[in-house]
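ok so dumb question maybe but i'm new to this and my supervisor (M.) told me to 'just get the structure for HTH-type transcriptional regulator SarZ' and walked off. so i did the thing. is this what she meant?? sequence i used:
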Amino acid sequence: MNYDQLKLENQLCFPLYAASRLIIRAYQQDLDRLGITYPQYLVLMVMWEHEELTVNEIGEKLILNTNTVTPLLKRMETMGLLIRTQSKADQRKVLIKLSEQGVNMQSKAAEIPANLLSKLNIKANDAEIARALDLKNRLYDIINLVKESEQTTTELV
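this is what came out, is it supposed to look like this??
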């Protein structure tokens, strides 16, 4: 029997996994300077776009479950980056807002995307940027396909 389908080089998931790990590593120097981790950076980016979100909304945007998001947010609160409060309308919901320190970190993080492009040797010309954006859009297509597949599978169970 031929097991070519099990070769690492034939897997869709491995290059995505490896690229993700290497890109996150490329962020590390900038994130260390800010004193945050990559998951904390993701939360901050989401919160810079929204004045207030629930824990569940943050989890949905980052494709993380509540059990993963909650300790992350608690740690960020301890660091002074955000404020967690109970919803007055629904005590079961925890609302998240950025603290002043979290808001101010946005200006310190503004150079991170350009630094990453430089580390990845992506030139700031139209063709290179277009290729990078095309790849990003194709990855989002894959993410959406997987999410839809998971929803369909969950609905069938």
